[in-house]
Amino acid sequence: MEEKKIPIVLLISNSFYWFKDERFRSFFIAYFLVFLFLFCVGLAIASAVLLFLRPVYSLISFVFLVVWTVVAFFAFIVIKKGREAVDFFKEYLKYFLIYAILPVVIAAVIAAVLLISNWSQVLTLLIYSSSPADFLSSLSSLPAAIILIIAFIIFAISSSYLSTFYTISKIGKIFGKKSVFEKFSMASMIEAVKFWIVSFFAPLFNWIDKRIFAIQITLIILAILSLLAWILIPSLVPDDIAHIISIIFPILLIVLFFIYLAICLYNAIRFFPALILRIFKSKKATEALTECWEMTKGNALPIFASLIVIAIAAWIISVILQQLPTSIFSFIASLIFPESVRLIEYMLLPLSILSNAIAVFISIFFMFSIYSQLSKNFVFKK
User: Does residue 369 fall inside a structural domain?
Assistant: First the structure.
C-alpha cells in the first residue's frame, strides 16, 4: 500500500467538523439529549422520593429538574428540524432502555428479592461488618451480587456498542456510507465484543508485525528473568553483591517496562482507526487491524501529535463546561447550605454528560479523518 503523510492541522480540524456542519450538530445534540432525557427522568423520581425524606433536597432537585427539562425541550426543538437526528434520538433511546437499562432494573429486582429472602444473613453482615467495604466484600459472595455484576457487564457492553458501532454507523450514513451496524442486534453485539477483545490484545502482542512481536516477547522474557534473578540471586551471593543486585534489577525492570509501554503505545496509535475499517468495510477484527497497520505506516507521529492536541482541547472544554461551573455552584452551596454540596454536584451531572459527548464525537471524527486521508474517496476531501 502506498505510504501517505497526513497533515496534522487537517487531522485536528476535521475532528471538529461535526461542530461546523448543521446535520452533524443535530446528531450531536440528539446523542446528548438521550442521556439528558434519562437524567431528567431519574431526577423526577428522585425529587418525588426526597419529598417524603428531605423536603429541602426535594425542592433543590425540583428546581434543577425544571432547568434541565427546559434545556432538553429546546434541544429537541433544534434536532426536530432534521428527521434523521430525531430518528437517531428515538432509536438510541429505545435501544439504550431495552438493552442497557432494562437488564440492570431486572437484575436489581431479582437481587432485592434474593436479599430479602436472605435478610437474616444480610442483617448479620451489617451487624458484624467493621466497615462498608467489609460489608460489601462479604456481600459479594451472595448470588445477588453476581446477578448485579452480570447486569452491569451487559450494561457496559450495550452502552459501549451504542456509543461506538451504532453511532459511527449512523454518522457514516450521512456521509453516504453503509454499515451492518445501523440496527441493534445480538449478532452485531457479538461482532463488537470480538473486535474489542482482539483490538485490546493487539497492541500488547502485535502478531501482525513479526519484528515488533519478537521484541515484545523478548522484553517479557527479559522482565521475567530479571524478576527471578532479583528474587533468587541475593540469597546465593554475599551481602554486598546482593545489595548491588537489589538496585540494578529493579532499575532494569523499570527500563524494560517503559520500553514495552512505548511499543504498546506505538501499536495503539497505528491501530487507532481500525474501528472505522471494521464498521464500513465489513472486515473481521484481525483483517481490519492488519489493513489499518499497513494504512497508517509512516503516520504514527502525526496521529500521536494530533491526539495530544485534541486531548488538551478536550480537557480545556471539560474545564470550561464541567469543572468550572461545578466548582462555582459547589462553592456557593457550601456558603449557603453546606449539606447540599454533594447534591448540587449531582444536579450538575448533565455538564459532565455534555463534556463526555463532545469527547466521543471528537474521537469519532478523528478516526474518520485519519481514514479519509489514507483512503480514496471516503469522507473528507484530501
Answer: yes
pLDDT of residue 36: 95
Please check whether residue 367 lies inside any domain of the structure.
Answer: yes
In which band, very low, low, confident or very high, does the pLDDT at 354 lie, cut at 50, 70 and 90? very high
Q: Give the residue, 304 or 54, on which the prediction is more confident.
A: 304
Q: Give the relative orientation of helices 285-295 and 239-271 as an angle to the nearest 10 degrees.
A: 90
Q: How many domains does the chain have?
A: 1
Distance CA 283, CA 274 (A): 10
Tell me the pLDDT tens digit for each residue of 304-353.
Answer: 999 999 999 989 998 898 888 888 888 887 777 777 788 888 889 999 99
Q: What pTM does this model have?
A: 0.85
Alpha-carbon distance 33 to 109, whole Å? 27
Cβ of 146: how many Cβ atoms within 10 Å? 14
Place of cell 425541550: 73
Question: What 3-state DSSP class applies to 282?
Answer: coil
Composition of the chain by helix, strand, coil, percent to 5: 85, 0, 15
Distance CA 64, CA 363 (A): 30
Task: State how far Cα 21 lies from the chain centre.
Answer: 25
**Residue 2 located in a structural domain:** no
Q: Which amino acid, one-letter code, is at 70?
A: V
